[in-house]
């Protein structure tokens, strides 16, 4: 099985809500017995690969290493190269507080959370009291990029802060200091736009409720609309996560690295890559678009009807059996 590699989606394939699917535990056992190189690849995130690998190792009763864990923001790690020294610009990280831990682990030297900007100047978003426990940030360090790692915890706050930072070209003083008021018009986009990155394009996701919840893609649509109304320009940004190429390239390398650990003497050349997922728009589209074999399961988002998957199966156990026989 050295010339097969698999990327498993997590939500709707291995995990359902907060519970692990029994088929997933059996599928993992078979993968280990057959020494198949694999990764877990999710559009979720908001934590470190080490934390998520430890959590899933327990749930799936099999050892998953951090390098086999591809969260939506994992392929963004190399972006830290431009922001990794004491003198580098800071970066704004959108998402829950634990995203900062992930950013530090990737090598970003000065990651900042939106709530820390509110701790610096509550008037930026004056419609609620800032959350206690966040430290103010320095006004002297420019914010050089905006990276959305995970779902925004407060759309209003984050839309305001992102629009402010783009207009002020990352200079917090221009946002908070009153003497800058007279120059307000000159701050309107006479400069190249601050780089903006999103880790997940999913518009909605499902939890225990009957109607879908907005995912990071919902926040992005909202931000784009407000920004365009404000500036008259389209928001420029780069996407990561499934179904985008950067994420599949990253996953291929991670599978090949795992393959090297299992078969040190064997080249990865000629390996066939399979993507098992439940979401036709991210998992199946991503696998098809990037030259992988797409395998769709029925335990998650997909509920029947038309689909573009190469292989359709009931669940992840059948998916693995089908791949092993191929
Ligand atoms: O987009 C939200 C996230 O829950 C999707 O997770 O594992 O199905 O890619 P996953
Ligand atoms: Mg899924």
UniProtKB/TrEMBL annotation:
Coiled-coil annotated spans: none
Keywords: Hydrolase
One GO-annotated biological process of the protein: glycerophospholipid biosynthetic process
GO cellular component: mitochondrion
Domain of life according to the entry: Eukaryota
Keyword Hydrolase applies: yes
Listed Pfam families: Hydrolase_6, Hydrolase_like
GO molecular function: hydrolase activity
Entries under InterPro entries matching the protein: CDP-alcohol_PTase-I, HAD-like_sf, HAD-SF_hydro_IIA, HAD-SF_hydro_IIA_CECR5, HAD_sf
NCBIfam families cross-referenced by the UniProt entry: CECR5, HAD-SF-IIA
PANTHER family tied to this protein: CAT EYE SYNDROME CRITICAL REGION PROTEIN 5, CDP-DIACYLGLYCEROL--GLYCEROL-3-PHOSPHATE 3-PHOSPHATIDYLTRANSFERASE-RELATED
Protein name: HAD-superfamily hydrolase
């Amino acid at each position: 099985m050295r010339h097969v590699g698999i990327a498993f989606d997590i939500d709707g394939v291995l995990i359902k809500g907060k519970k692990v699917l029994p088929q997933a535990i059996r599928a993992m056992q078979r993968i280990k017995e057959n020494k198949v190189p694999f990764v877990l690849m999710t559009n979720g995130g908001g934590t470190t690969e080490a934390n998520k690998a430890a959590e899933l190792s327990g749930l799936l009763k099999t050892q998953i290493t951090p390098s086999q864990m591809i969260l939506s923001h994992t392929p963004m790690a190399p972006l830290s190269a431009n922001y990794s020294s004491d003198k580098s610009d800071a970066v704004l990280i959108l998402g829950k507080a634990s995203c900062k831990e992930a950013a530090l682990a990737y090598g970003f030297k000065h990651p900042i959370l939106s709530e820390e900007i509110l701790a610096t100047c509550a008037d930026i978003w004056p419609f609620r009291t800032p959350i206690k426990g966040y430290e103010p940030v320095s006004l002297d360090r420019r914010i050089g990029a905006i990276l959305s790692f995970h779902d925004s915890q407060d759309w209003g706050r984050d839309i305001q802060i992102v629009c402010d930072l783009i207009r002020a070209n990352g200079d917090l003083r221009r946002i908070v200091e009153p003497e800058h008021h007279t120059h307000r018009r000159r701050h309107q986009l006479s400069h190249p736009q601050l780089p903006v990155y999103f880790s997940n394009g999913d518009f909605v996701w499902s939890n225990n409720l009957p109607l879908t919840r907005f995912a990071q893609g919902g926040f992005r649509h909202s931000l784009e609309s407000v920004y365009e109304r404000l500036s008259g320009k389209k928001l420029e940004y780069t996407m990561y996560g499934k179904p985008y190429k950067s994420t599949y390239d990253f996953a291929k390398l991670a599978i090949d690295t795992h393959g090297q650990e299992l078969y040190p003497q064997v080249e990865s050349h000629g390996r066939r890559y399979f993507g098992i997922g439940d979401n036709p728009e991210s998992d199946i589209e991503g696998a098809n678009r990037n030259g992988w074999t797409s395998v769709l399961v029925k335990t998650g988002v997909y509920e029947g009807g038309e689909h573009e998957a190469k292989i359709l199966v009931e669940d992840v156990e059948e998916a693995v059996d089908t791949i092993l026989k191929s």
